[in-house]
Amino acid sequence: MSAATPLGDLELIRSGPAGAVTAFDAPVDGPVVDGHYPGFPVLPGVFLIEAADRTVRQWAHGNVPARDGAEGGEVDLVAMDRCRFHRPVFPGDRVLADVTVTDNAAGLLFKAAVATNRGKVADIRLRYRVRDGQGDGAEQGEQEAEGAA
Description:
The chain has 149 residues and is of the alpha+beta class. It has 3 helices and 6 strands. The longest helix has 18 residues, at 46-63. It is elongated, with a radius of gyration of 16 Å. Residues 137-141 have low confidence and may be disordered. Residues 21-116 form the ApeI dehydratase-like domain.
């Protein structure tokens, strides 16, 4: 994870076999918020996707067994199947990322519902594969994404 993220640490609210919930406070200042949009600061949507991804990875560390020499809980993002933003996230908002998992032949499918106290702000669907210990998985993920296109 990049040190450049303005989200900081996500607070793990709960984690279980069906998914996980994390929370964070949207930053109140800084170049990311101030510049998006001048005079109407909002948290860029890419950080909601990041929160969903980081929630999945926190869930995986406690719920995905090791495979073929890989460390337990290692998953690779294969694709983002859906991303819909419903309303903006404002500086200082408390944001919850609630992800649920479905395991199928194509890998792990996660549905993320991201919300603030004003309601749902995003629906996101992410697909992952369990890392197998053979390299970093980036090559296989790229091949799978090209095959789906």
